[in-house]
Amino acid sequence: MSRRFEDRVVVITGATGMAAAAAARIAGDGGSVFVLSRDPDECAALCRRITASGGVADSHAADLCREQETEDAFAAALERFGRIDGLFAVAGASGRRVGDGPLHEMALSGWTGTFELNTVPTFLAAREGVRAMLRTAPADTGDDAASRSPAERGSIVLMSSVLARHPSPQLFATHAYAAAKGAVLSLTTTLAAYYAPQGIRVNAVAPSLVATPMAARAADDATTVDYASR
Question: What gap in Å lies between CA 63 and CA 3, rounded to an integer?
Answer without folding.
Answer: 32
